[in-house]
């Protein structure tokens, strides 16, 4: 079981301006839950009980969301709105701890993960990038990765096939032949040009990683933009430990893009237990 999951949520979300001028991108709702809520629910489903949020100074709304809202809960209780009260209270299940640390400078994903080092417990930890919303309700992707880690002891990274012309937007892995859904990683490249990409297997924002990664991140040189890339540290980890790629089951939405966000909203809206049928009928009549 993975005890701790890290959520890097310090980015400014500039692609969603002006919506994100005062609201964290991770708090934008897909149907009726913010992106970060989907990510935390996935972590809880994988057995994690310690949630570590790497935030920035504009991200207080995330901590507020996972805190007790005394005034709201009291009002709902007095009005007898018990179903809504339960929804408000279960944003964080009983026994789950939320911890926060700030990334003071935007120095890349690797630096954000390194900021969480003192709060991570155990020999391995989970990492979820909330922009990557993956719909597979019965078996969330982090659960798939955690099982693979438990069975093999390997660090494991989720991947999916992308059109080769899009490799410049992703970290891309070089993998030995697959056995089932997993394959041993030989190397990885951050945002390669299509002609330089070792494969069309792109990293999607779910990881289970050895805590050894923190020591490697400390010594990872910044790239040409001054950012510390987690792929560079994982490439170093390959020299010491086994790291596997895992082709997950589930539908991936890149909610860091407006198109992906809209696609997630439509698809999850159609599946919604209360609204799905009416929403689908409305769409069909457009």
Notes on the protein architecture:
This protein has one domain (4-284): Alpha-Beta Complex (Spore Coat Polysaccharide Biosynthesis Protein SpsA, Chain A). Helix content is 32%, strand content 24%. A hairpin with a 6-residue loop joins β9 and β10. The mean pLDDT is 90. It has a nine-stranded mixed β-sheet, with helices on both faces. Strands 2-3 form a two-stranded antiparallel sheet. It has a two-stranded antiparallel ribbon with strand order 7-13. It has helices at 35-45, 60-65, 70-78, 82-89, 109-115, 141-152, 212-218, 230-237, 258-271, 276-284, and strands at 4-8, 29-30, 33-34, 50-55, 97-102, 124-128, 132-135, 155-161, 171-175, 182-190, 201-210, 243-247, 251-254. The termini are far apart. α3 runs antiparallel to α4, α7 crosses α8 (230-237) and α9 (258-271) crosses α10 (276-284). The chain is globular and about 60 Å long. It is an alpha/beta fold and 286 residues long.
Short structural summary:
This protein has a single domain, classed as Alpha-Beta Complex (Spore Coat Polysaccharide Biosynthesis Protein SpsA, Chain A). It is 32% helix and 24% strand.
DSSP summary, beta strand count: 13
Q: Which sheet architecture does the biggest sheet show?
A: 9 strands, mixed
Number of domains: 1
CATH architecture: Alpha-Beta Complex
Terminal CA distance reads 46 Å
Unreliable parts: none
Kindly report the spatial arrangement of strands forming the biggest sheet.
Answer: 5-4-1-6-11-8-12-10-9
Note the total helix count.
10
| Radius of gyration over C-alpha positions, nearest whole angstrom | 19 Å
What is the structural class? alpha/beta
Please provide the ordered H/E string of secondary-structure elements: EEEHEHHHEHEEHEEEEHHEEHH
Pfam families: NTP_transferase (PF00483)
EC number: 2.7.7.9
Family: Belongs to the UDPGP type 2 family.
Catalytic activity: alpha-D-glucose 1-phosphate + UTP + H(+) = UDP-alpha-D-glucose + diphosphate
